[in-house]
Amino acid sequence: MNQDIIVDDDLDWQPERQGIAFTAHWQGRKIDCFLALHHLEHMTGLSLIDEGNIMLAFESVRFDIEERVAELVGEEAFAPDGGLYL
């Protein structure tokens, strides 16, 4: 678990974008994040179809997601809109 990055519980499955939007906090800053479904499937090794299973899969790799967010912050890999896209 990364203590510098905190991923919030505000997960929002966005079927039209095929991914999950969420926010993370880093040094008091709120960062909008987006995790593509195909990346989540790769992380879990699962083929995900319904929203319930997608959310459970996210929770099963939450700490890995926090680590990836921390890496992207360290690389200053922010998109032009200030968000992070995983």
UniProtKB/TrEMBL annotation:
Fetch the SUPFAM superfamilies from UniProt.
Shew3726-like (SSF160272)
Entries under InterPro entries matching the protein: DUF1488, Shew3726-like_sf
Q: What is this protein called?
A: Uncharacterized protein
Organism annotation? Oceanisphaera psychrotolerans
